[in-house]
Amino acid sequence: PTLVMHGDDDQVVPIADSALLSVKLLRRGTLKVYPKFPHGMCTTQSEVINHRFEPRARLSARVLEQHVKWAQSAGIDGFIVSWKHTPALDARLRKLIAIADRLDFKLSIIYQGLDFYRRPLPVARVAGDLRFFASHFADDPAFGLYSRPLVIWSGTWEFTPDQVRQAAGPVRDRLLVLASEKNVEGYNRLAGTVDG
Questions:
Q1: Which of 10, 80, 102, 151 is deepest in the core (most CB within 10 A)?
Q2: Are 112 and 44 in contact (CB under 8 A)?
Q3: Is residue 106 a contact partner of residue 146, using CB atoms and an 8 Å limit?
């Protein structure tokens, strides 16, 4: 049996073009639709998703290790991991870091700067999360792909340059912070506030 989960407000991969079709291809597929959930719902709504499945399907170290080994066998030497500072996501990242260190695998972070409704998180929250990452995880060798650990801030198009500077500025000496804008003009408006 295969469970396909999808949010019906996914603007990146619309449900009609993906989950509704893919579940039909599965012999024993079940579709679970999450009303109003966006693309990336397993991160933006991790508490809801994890609460439903945690007793039955913990993301164990064994599963994480198998995924790393599969990636390595395909010639992939690192993952970009979706993260923001929550107890559950911090614990999972710690597990993955331990595995990455043991298997000489590299990690980078994509930080989800938007909430469930695709609105920007409070700047103080983003700044606090980036500081937490810098002080708790950044020194680990798993993040040694570049001169500084790479953090891609998803959703910067919803923040002003001053807000991006306020959140990213204090950690740019420790982290390589990239924006995720929608066009060249967006990147140009943030020039000097992030590393790219």
A1: 151
A2: yes
A3: no
